[in-house]
Design goal:
The chain is α/β, with parallel strands linked by helices. 32% of the residues lie in helices and 23% in strands. The protein folds into two domains: 8-181, Rossmann fold (3-Layer(aba) Sandwich), CATH 3.40.50; 192-400, CoaB-like (Rossmann fold).
Length: 403
């Protein structure tokens, strides 16, 4: 998975109860294609075994600055790393790192490396709030270290809930990806990217609605990939059945008209517009004000068309805005997609056939055809939606570069 494939991630683990989450984080990095080297402090080994990390990464964990046969390991590890992640980073470790100490292997690696460093503090909420800890974190940030703020939630030892909990491994993984991406800046880094996702719902009565099978998975994958590449990402989302994307500012909507209004409001500040949502094409012309009873139901419901969101933006888009649309078809998909590309003034259209096995709604994969404004067509094989999202953004970067 971009950007981990072929990269070396050094995962530092310090002595906190949250170190059990670090094992899953190591697994995520490994599954994404990274070579993972693990360094445990002495106190970390009181909570979790080095053998755990060896089993998950395929590489022996490092523990001591003066381990036999490993002289100068801190230099070798520091030079090999493309990214250093310390998770959890305890209050004690933050204090030592802020003071430039190098009394253990992990602290020595931080001083020796030129790779970006991501620190993930985790501790009791009172320790996190202490002025000395806050000072240490501010100082480390001023030195160029990236810091992922602790989450709020249940703390150890029955301390209740508060800020200090280590974020979930998937959250740390996403931040690590963004840091790695920043090493090779994208043409969309710093650009404002608006993504629509999910279905919309059109009321039949107060308890029923018209909708479709969209989960929002494709739009979420695009939003997360754009954020990893440094984009300033906003999302207008219908009712999602997947988790919200990391890093995006979300505007929740229900109906197609709501989505159209939210897109229009954000349009003038948008550099890249990705219309990945599946808004309902029709709505009841006269929604019932009370629940329709079975014994009194009419034989049919009159429908009317909903607003065409993408077409309605034509007159209000900035000339420089890159517009990406989707076409989900059930026959002659490419032909219909080319027509939509022209009719709606897109720069890129993503076409897929809803009848294609493994593609379409509510699955993790998709098989798409990409056609750009110059008419260039590219058929992609069956890929995960995360891979499709990366492929789409690769094309957006080329458009942003004028290619």
């Amino acid at each position: 998975m971009r950007p981990f494939d072929g990269r070396t991630v050094l995962l530092g683990v310090t002595g906190g109860i949250a170190s059990y989450k670090s094992a899953w984080l190591a697994r995520l990095f490994t599954k994404a294609g990274a070579r993972v080297e693990t360094v445990l402090t002495a106190s970390a080994t009181e909570f979790i075994s080095p053998l755990t990390f060896e089993a998950l990464t395929g590489h022996g964990a490092h523990t001591g600055l003066f381990d036999s046969g490993r002289a100068l390991d801190h230099i070798k590890l520091a030079k090999a790393a493309d990214l250093v992640v310390v998770a959890p980073a305890t209050a004690d470790f933050l204090a030592r790192a802020a003071g430039g100490q190098a009394g253990d292997l992990l602290a020595a690696v931080l001083l020796a490396t030129r790779a970006p460093v991501l620190l993930v503090p985790a501790m009791n909420d009172h320790m996190w709030a202490h002025p000395q800890t806050r000072h240490n974190v501010a100082h480390l940030s001023s030195l160029g270290y990236r810091v992922v703020e602790p989450a709020e939630g249940m703390l150890a030892a029955g301390e209740g809930e508060g800020p200090g909990r280590m974020p979930e491994p998937e959250t740390i993984f996403a931040h690590a990806a963004r840091v790695l991406e920043s090493a090779r800046p994208s043409p969309i880094s710093g650009k404002r990217i608006l993504v629509t996702a999910g279905p919309t719902r059109e009321a039949v009565d107060p308890v029923r609605y018209l909708s479709n099978h969209s989960s929002g998975r494709m739009g979420v994958a695009i939003a997360e990939a754009a954020w990893r590449r440094g984009g300033i990402v906003s999302m207008v989302a219908g009712p999602l059945s997947v988790p919200e994307p990391m890093g995006a500012v979300i505007t929740r909507v229900e109906t197609t008209a709501d989505m159209a209004g939210a897109v229009e409001q954000a349009l003038q500040d948008t550099d890249v517009l990705v219309m990945a949502a599946a808004p309902a094409d029709f709505r009841p012309a006269q929604p019932a004000r009370t629940k329709i009873k079975k014994d009194g139901a009419a034989g049919s419901i009159a429908l009317e068309q909903t607003p065409d969101i993408l077409k309605s933006t034509l007159a209000r888009r900035r000339a420089s805005t890159i517009v990406v649309g989707f076409a989900l078809e059930t026959g002659d998909a490419v032909q219909h997609g080319r027509k939509k590309l022209a009719d709606k003034g897109m720069d890129l259209i993503v076409i897929n056939d809803a009848t294609e096995p493994g593609a379409g709604f509510a699955v993790d994969t998709n098989r798409v055809t990409l056609i750009d404004r110059a008419g260039r067509e590219e058929q992609l094989p069956l890929l995960t939606k995360v891979e499709v999202a990366e492929a789409i953004l690769d094309r957006v970067e080329r458009l942003a570069d004028g290619r």
